[in-house]
Amino acid sequence: MYEIFVVCYLLVALALIGLVLIQHGKGASMGAAFGAGASGTVFGSSGTGNFLTKSTTVLAVLFFVLSIVLGNLTAKQSKPDDGVDFFQTVPALNEQAPAKQDDVNDIPVGN
Prior knowledge:
This is Protein-export membrane protein SecG. Involved in protein export. Participates in an early event of protein translocation. This protein has a domain at 1-20 and 49-77. Helix content is 50%, strand content 4%. The protein has helices spanning 2-22, 29-33, 47-76; strands at 100-101, 108-109. The chain has a two-stranded antiparallel sheet. Helix 1 (2-22) packs antiparallel against helix 3 (47-76).
């Protein structure tokens, strides 16, 4: 499920980038006002602006919705085990060497 959302997110992002790059800036409309080939377009003189603007709006809303959904799915996932518990410090055992026994009297002798 998560992978499907990630693939859709990527496709929407690429489509949004493509639509933004296709659109003309505000300065390009002055050339179209004087008949610079605007009537020869597929959508007419003003159709491309409305179509691309609406498409960009729909893709932007879809992009933000997918961002929120992916954020919620990621936040609800459990944290993977990173092995920190393995590296916790273990208290050192203070073992003392057994006292040496004197062979003759069986009395412990210090080191």
